[in-house]
Amino acid sequence: MLTVTSVNVNGLRAAAKKGFVPWLAGTTADVLCLQEVRAETGQLPDEVREPAGWYTVHAPAAAKGRAGVSLYSRREPDRVRVGFGSAEFDGSGRYVEADLPGVTVASLYLPSGEVGTDRQDEKERFMAEFLPYLVGLRERAAADGREVLVCGDWNIAHQEADLKNWKANQKKSGFLPEERGWLTDVLTETRGGYVDVVRALHLGAEGPYSWWSYRGRAFDNDAGWRIDYHMATPGLAERALKAYVERAAAYDQRWSDHAPVTVVYGRQDA
After folding, report:
1. Candidates 72, 230, 258, 265; catalytic one
2. pLDDT, tens only, 80-136
3. Among 69, 155, 224, 245, which residue has the fewest nearby CB atoms (within 10 Å)?
4. Is 8 a known ligand-binding residue?
5. pTM passes above 0.85
6. Would you give the DSSP letter of residue 57?
């Protein structure tokens, strides 16, 4: 069995003060992928930088206070890679991967973008570079008899079922036709070749949402977005037994504007 959880922590130091530490102590995950850590490694409290029972790798952004991804594993990785070979993005704290027995697991924080700004241009450049890497990663893994799992905040809602108010967001970053088309390419067998594991286990369902704005009553009304994904190669996706969002019981119990997304994968011979 392999249980993997992914969550955008919206600042790990802040999350640690709000409830992340007891959540971490209680999780049954074998691997944990974090995004938007927003801290250099030395700035993190000991209990989240190197918690007992975990091997950790932190990939902060060169720009202080921005982005940052981390990966925690109960087992020491055989290999770790920061970045995906991009001159522009390898220092931006947006991608880290680790080889574990039979599977490469990655934590991804794709740029959020904003229509009509440089941020959207940056997002589009990232997407253009990242898809070929995903294809190559899958092909290399297949040649080695391995599976791939890329978890994280992809900052794109793929389908209408992936956000509550889709009609009002058709011209906003995160639900633009070109972004959704790119994600379709990631999931097309003849292109990226990956599987959206949570959607595969929740066919026809609204959500399950993983992000809710702090504005208004979005959380209370479950007016959310599903932008945090487990994207797996088909062999691993077929082994997924259950997927769920660890939504806080109440607004004041949240330690991030995102919620952890957890998937349990069965053994290869299951």
Report:
1. 258
2. 999 999 999 999 999 999 999 999 999 999 999 999 999 999 999 999 999 999 999
3. 245
4. yes
5. yes
6. E
d(CA 109, CA 211): 14
**DSSP result, 175-233:** S-HHHHHHHHHHH-TTTT--EEHHHHHSTT------B--SSTTTTTTT--B--EEEEE-
pLDDT at residue 267 in the model: 79
Sequence-ordered list of residues with C-beta below 8 angstroms from that of 250, at least 6 positions apart, any chain: none
Catalytic pick among 30, 58, 72, 109? 109
- Is 155 flagged in the annotation as binding? yes
153 is catalytic: yes
Strand order in the sheet with 95-100: 79-82, 95-100, 103-109, 147-153, 228-232, 195-196
Q: Indicate the domain borders of the chain.
A: 2-265
Told to judge if 202 belongs to the known catalytic residues of this protein, a careful annotator would answer no
Q: Is 196 one of the catalytic residues?
A: no
Helix%, strand%, coil% for the chain, nearest 5: 30, 25, 45
The Cα 164–Cα 149 span in angstroms is 26
Active-site entry in 153, 162, 196, 228: 153
Q: Residues with Cβ < 8 Å from 177, sequence gap 6 or more?
A: 170
Distance of CA 15 to the CA centre of its chain: 17
Closest among 265, 261, 195, 254 to 6, alpha carbons compared: 261
| Amino acid (one-letter) located at 104 | T
Closest among 222, 244, 113 to 163, alpha carbons compared: 222
Q: Please give the class, per CATH, of domain 2-265.
A: alpha beta
What are the Cα distances from residue 234, in Å, to 74, 148, 197, 229, 263?
A: 24, 9, 9, 15, 15
Please return the burial class of 45, using the count of CB atoms within 10 Å of its CB with bins 0-12, 13-18 and 19+. Answer: middle
